[in-house]
Write a structure and sequence with these properties.
single chain, 277 residues, alpha+beta, three-stranded antiparallel sheet
Length: 277
């Protein structure tokens, strides 16, 4: 709701507003004509001060709202033309969530025990609930929406599947890590392919990246400290986003290109990321 006639600052004293007074209906019609959004208005009065409340509906799923033909987005206090990344994100809302669909034929026996144990430990720690560790696997999968009606989802496969099972049902989920001494080189100097579950891959992947992580010296007084070029938290967040937001219907794989000072992450059908010095 957009409230006119109330002071911005707390405690939001009613100061009154004569905006669109007597023309509330025309205001709603004008807004609908300009941007195709049907708003409603309500007028309140407090001690003779008029307050106008404009109720604005939420944006429809997968639909861009445009002003004079241009989709806009808020960046802090400014209104800017919407980025390609944000446009793609909104349009993708129309697509069903692939990870939530059932992976026909996938069974609990196809899941990796280490990955299941890691999931239980991490979730129990995050929720501060050790009783989660004692729950049956079937209940855990159901509670976390990784299973429905005793059938397992693709999210379950990506997070917990055995290597051979992932190769069978979703071979394009592999992650390719390429290292180059020279960033402009076409051919890589070393390559690692990770095609196991998320919980099996994610720490191994960081270990490989950190193995060739460059350093730069920082002097503080008489001491010199070596600071890594690639920050672990930033790298992990970028990799997680690439895995979560990629289009698994495409046969391409996630590709990570590393030098000693940069990391480029290409996510099929999704967003690409760059971490550098």
């Amino acid at each position: 709701m957009l409230v006119l006639g109330v002071d911005d600052k707390h405690p939001h004293t009613v100061v009154g507003s004569n905006f669109a007074e007597g023309a509330e209906g025309a205001l709603c019609d004008k807004i609908y004509t300009d941007i195709g959004i049907r708003v409603t208005t309500e007028v309140l009065n407090e001690n003779g001060n008029r307050v106008l409340i404009i109720s604005i509906p939420g944006r429809p799923v997968g639909r861009l709202l445009k002003f004079e033909g241009v989709p806009l987005m808020r960046t802090r206090e400014s209104l800017r033309e919407m980025s390609d990344q944000e446009i793609f994100k909104i349009l993708s809302e129309q697509e069903p969530d692939f990870s939530a669909t059932i992976c026909e034929g996938l069974k609990i026996d196809d899941l990796d025990e280490f990955s299941i144990r890691t999931l239980k430990e991490k979730y129990a720690s995050k929720q501060k609930n050790n009783s989660f560790l004692t729950l049956p696997v079937e209940q855990i999968l159901s509670d976390l929406d990784l299973a429905r009606d005793n059938k397992l989802t693709y999210a379950c496969l990506i997070l917990l599947g055995k290597q051979e099972t992932i190769k069978k049902y979703l071979p394009q989920s592999a992650i390719n890590l390429e290292f180059r001494v020279n960033a402009g080189s076409i051919h890589y100097d070393d390559k690692v392919i990770l095609n196991q579950s998320f919980f099996m891959n994610i720490d191994v992947l960081w270990d490989h990246i950190n193995l060739r992580n460059g350093r730069f010296p920082i002097q503080q007084g008489p001491y010199i400290f070596d600071i890594p070029f690639l920050n672990e938290e930033a790298v992990r967040e970028s990799v997680h986003n690439a895995i979560v937001h990629r289009n698994y219907r495409l046969q391409s794989e996630v590709v990570i290109k590393q030098t000693d000072k940069s990391l480029d992450i290409i996510s099929p059908g999704g967003v690409s990321f760059r971490c550098n010095d």
